[in-house]
Design goal:
heterodimer, A: about 260 residues, alpha/beta, Rossmann fold, six-stranded mixed β-sheet, 10 helices, 10 strands, about 35% helix, globular, B: about 325 residues, mainly alpha, two-stranded antiparallel ribbon, 2 strands, about 0% strand
Amino acid sequence: MTEPVLEARGIVKRFGHVEALRGADFTVDRGEVVALIGDNGAGKSTLIKVLSGAHQPDAGAILVGGESVRFTTPLDARRAGVETVYQDLAIADDLSVAANLYLGRELRRRGLPGRLGLLDKRAMQRGAAEALAELGVRIPRVTTPIAMLSGGQRQCVAVARAVVWATDVVILDEPTAALGVVQTERVLGVIDRARETGKSVVLVSHNMPQVLEIADRVEVMRLGRRTARFTTADATTDDLVAAMTGALVTEPEAAEGR
Amino acid sequence: MTGPSPSLDAAAAPEGLGARLRERFAHAAAESTAAAALLVLFVVLSFASPHFLTADNLFNIGSQTAVIAIIAAAQTLVIITKGIDLSVGSVAALSGVIAAITVRDLGFDVWTATAVAIAVGAAAGALNGLLVAAARLPPFIATLGTMSVGRGLVFIATGAVGVYSLPESFQLIGNGEIAGIPFAILVTALVAVATGAMLSRTRFGQHVYAMGSNLEAARRAGIPVRRNLLQVYVLAGALVGLGGMIAASRVNSGQPNYGIGLELDVIAAAVIGGASLFGGQGRIAGTLIGAFLIALVRNGSVLLGIDIHFQQVIVGLIIWVAVYFDQYRRRRIEARG
């Protein structure tokens, strides 16, 4: 069996006296979409932040491709191939679609102009247009400012940016929470394309039917730990809800104790 | 929101020249409006006063506006980062009097004095930048403090008396000419082109917009936001120092009271030209248009014999209109999104 592309083992994270993660495990295999679900306060967001380098765990290990890593900043995680899209859109409204796709990774012109910091806007526009087309994201033009796009288009751009730059894993925190039905479908379409290109996607969601529709597997968190794992083919909404409320446990070693 | 609208969302794109122009205009509505107003005012004044459309008068307007334009460009950089710099008037005065003092007491020439003025401005900018980026004070408060400290230092340095007895050469940068074109106008043009290109064409400029638009997004994208903020304030301070030097040079003296209220003029110029106090928006070209619009209102009022105090009223009205259109546009865009 090949190593998981991203794995968390026994992650503990405390905030003062509150223990948000109490030895949480999490596994992502290559090319799969894993849904991470759990009730409010179960520790999903904290785990995501640990996996993306925004929080440092107090104990436990993160492994990328079987190798133990330490993410002290989000930049470390990104360098290791893990890109995250947070709930609050991390895109700049006043910048164009292309500028947002390349934000922090702008292409510079060759030679002296490039050394002076001059941007190669054409190359970025071309690259952005190609990347978006490949992911099936439809926007008017890559030069359009984000502020002029619909909520769904914005979210698609944010997700697409993560997919484009992630070499291994894209983490999406509630990517469709604020979206309508059609717009949600578009975002899910981008997730599908990402999987087709061999990238793994971690999807945090509260929407059970959506989870069953898009994900290959589901991992359930409860009280700071992983308490259940399912492959979506074998799971029902009732199973997921039961696991979230603690009525169903498939990971006994994690759920016992405190 | 009235729920998803499949037909609209699924529609590929409003293509074609019309859509592109609409988008372009919507994104720079304030700037376009200000440019149109500037053009109209220019034409009206050309017909209304025989003295307006003369090289002398135009160069005069250009030279008078040079200082405000340069400092407004500096202000624009700061405003795009969602900041504001209230200290520009004090810092310009400080730079001007210190430059004048170095010439009077140390015998510096005008160019060395200019370098000194720029350095003083940059130092003040670095102070602002550290207060904002490192001590994390709100820009309004940080620069309010610098405004007060700066003015205090001006009075301490000069004993609240103007710095006079300067050689005529001190006037070179403010009143000199090259090939018949006022030097101050050339410097302004150079500053405008350089800062404009920096903002629109370089990676740094892109990051300035990104930080003002969404600081958290910029940080998460790996942009060194604190260092960049510091750099913006230092650069702005240097430009303010240059402006202060030109202002001092124009009156061949260091004036401790120079620049009181200047921050309001340059903020007005930037805002009229489309810079948004909410950050992320603004262009040097727009700010120049704003600065010249204000200058034309002033100049036109003089030429047409309108009460001098009425100018202030007109400028205030322009600010209201400019910001109203900006808000109106933003609301419309948000309603669509």
